[in-house]
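Supplementary Text 2. Reproducibility record for the structural model of the 285-residue chain.

All settings were left at their defaults, and a single model was retained for analysis rather than an ensemble. We include the record here because the model underlies the residue-level annotations in Supplementary Table 4.
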Amino acid sequence: MSSAPLVLESLVRVAPFGVRFWDVVLGRHVRDGLAVTLIPDGRPFRRIPAFLNTSGVYVAQDLPGLRSFEFGDEAFPQSPGAVHGYRVEVVDLLGRFHDVSFEAGLPVAGLFEATCGSPPSPPDGLYDVVPLFSLPSRPVPPGFAAVRSRLAAADGSPAHLAALEVVPSPGAPLVRGYADARGEVLALVPYPEPSGSTGSPPFEPGGKLADQQWQIEVGASLAEEEPDETLPDICAFALRQPATLSAGAVPLPAFQTLDYGRDLVLPPPPATPELVVAPNGSPPF
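Retained model, structure tokens:
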């Protein structure tokens, strides 16, 4: 006697939110150490954690207002007014990156992309990821130089999220380091090619790599709006205004000497232990 085939039903759920995070220094996805929390608009005490899946995507499910979408009973909304608003908070438990937050209208098709400004564009020009920016406490990766400082406003208070900007060589991409709540800042800069080097690895005719020096260009910028001191919005890192740097009442020279294997601390001794950062056109005091 033949028996009827056994039919197994499978339940498929759709995640209304998925996001990848990007280490802008090393140029790779961040897959560990992050606590990602979603908070529905109007319900500040409802906190839903996202989890990391095997593809390196932080995913959230069981979100208020989105149950019918998750179980396939509802398609992606065609109207922006049909989405549900959430605030997403990202905290790095390993102390490598600035904590950030951003707004998300859910559900979203594909991976979430943060956008800032008008016309809207992604922070740091990166699509399909949310960038993360280094804290001054982050260990310096191999192959990178550390440019450090403490940035203060004209009134002496820490210049939270002011950026120390470095161009390591002519035509090289601009590198930014962002000050923490104490004003401490670290810009991680890939070492320029040694002078006179050819091939790979670099070769220094008649000299040692440890003796290499470079003239690098240093500047600054400020967030366009006052950032939140605890969990700044991701757009505070993207929307910038140019600024000046001064050591006391003396403008910081735009070009500074970087020595291989040594942190460059600005301003150099015996100047004041911090740099004053001010919007372009404003006196430091």
